[in-house]
Amino acid sequence: MDTRIKTVYGRQILDSRGNPTVEVECFLECGITARAGVPSGASTGSHEAVELRDGDKKRFFGKGVLNAVKNVNGPVAEKISGMDAVNQGEIDLAMISLDGTPNKANLGANAILAVSLAVARAAAIATGLPLFHYLGGANATRLPVPMMNILNGGVHANWQGADFQEYMIVPYGADNVRQSIEWGSEVYHALKSVLKAKGHSVGVGDEGGFAPEVSSNEEPIELIMQAITEVGLTPGKDIGIALDPASTEFFKDGRYLLRTENRELTSEEMVEYHAALAERYPYVVLEDGLAEDDWAGWKILNERLGAMIELVGDDLFVTNVRRIERGIKEDIANGVLIKLNQIGTLTETMAAVRMARLAGWGAMVSHRSGETVDSFIADMTVALDTGHLKTGAPARGERVEKYNQLMRIEEQLGDAASFAGKNAFARPVRSF
Ligand code: 2PG
Ligand code: MG
User: Fold this and answer.
1) Ligand having the closest approach to the CA of 157
2) Active site residue 261
3) How many angstroms is it from 291 CA to the middle of ligand 1?
4) What pTM value is reported for the model?
5) Are 53 and 142 in the same domain?
6) Atom of ligand 1 nearest to the CA of 45
C-alpha cells in the first residue's frame, strides 16, 4: 500500500457556534482519503498557538479562515506531498519549520492542525487499524471517564449565569463507558427537571450544559447534587464533581472578581474558596482554579489542595511542553489539560501528554467550546490512555459524537476493554 501523501486540500466550514473553521482532506497515493476538522476556543489562553483569522470585517465579522485554508492548499500541500503519511513526526516537524515561528503565527495553528490530524487518520485507514489502535498500539484498551459539563457559566453562557465556566459530573463509579454515559445522560435530564421546578431557565450554553442565572458559584453544585440523588445515584460513590472556573476570564488587576456574589478575592482567598468546596463536595478535579499567569497563586493552590484533588492547568500550560516543564519544576499543579489546537500538531500534543505522565501528573484531554463533529479526541484519549476526557454535555451533536465514539470503541474492544473509573486521576478519589 502506497501511503505517500498525494496532496492535502483545505476548506472553510462552520463550527458549532456558527464561526468559520478549517477542515482538511488528505489524499494518499493508494487512493485513501481522510478528513479532519479543527475546533476553536472562546476562553482562550493568551499563550496558545495562533489561530489564524482573516480579520476582514466584511466577512464573518473578521473571523474567516480563508488565509489559513490558502496556506494548506499552497505551501503546506507543496511541502508535505510525497512524504509518507505514517511518518507523523516528520510531517509535523516539516510544517513547524515551514511556519518558522514559535507559535505558528505564519501558517496558523488551525491550518497546521487540520493537516496533522487528517494525515494521521489517512495513515490509520491505510494501515487497516482503527484510529485509537493506530495511535496507541495494541495496549490502547482503557476507556476514559467522561467529564460531562452539564452546567455552563462564564463566557460560555454570555456571563448571564455563574462566574465559573464549567460544572462537570464525573461518573467514575460505573462499570464501563456505556454505563457512565447512561448515568451522565440521566443526571443531565434530571438536572433539567430540578431547574424547571425551581423556575430556572433551561436554555443551554456553548457546550450543551444548562445556563441558569444563579446567586452564587456554589449553587450549581447543589443543584447537580440534587439531580444525582434524584436518579438514585450516590454523589462521591458513583459520581464526582469537577470544575473549570476558567479563572483567567474573571481575573482583573490581581483580583478574582466574582460578579454573581459581588466579591473580589485575592489568590489566597480564591484558594480557600475552593478548599471549602472540596470539603463539602466530592470534588475530584479543579481545572484553571487560578489565572494563566498567577504562578505564585498556583503554588499556594497546589500546597493547599494538591494532595487531595487533581489540579489541572489549561490556560496556564496551553499543552506546551515549555510551560508544563516549568510547572513541574516549580511544583505548582499535578495535571494538565490537553487541547490539540492550543499547540497545533498531533506530535507536540503527544509530547505534552508524555511529559505530564512521566512526572506522575494527570492529563485530561479536552474539546473546545467551538467544535466540529470530528471525534478525533475520543480515539486519541484511548490511544494515550489519559483516563479522562472532557467533551461537554451529553447533548448536542458535536459533543455527543465524541461520547458515542467512546461507546463504539468499547464495543469494538469487547472483553479486552477496561474502564479507567476511579483510577483515572492524579490523586485517588477521596471517600466521601
Ligand atoms: C476550556 C474550554 C473547553 P474554550 O476552558 O477548558 O471547555 O473552553 O474552548 O472556550 O477555551
Ligand atoms: Mg479550561
Assistant:
1) 1
2) no
3) 14
4) 0.98
5) no
6) 11
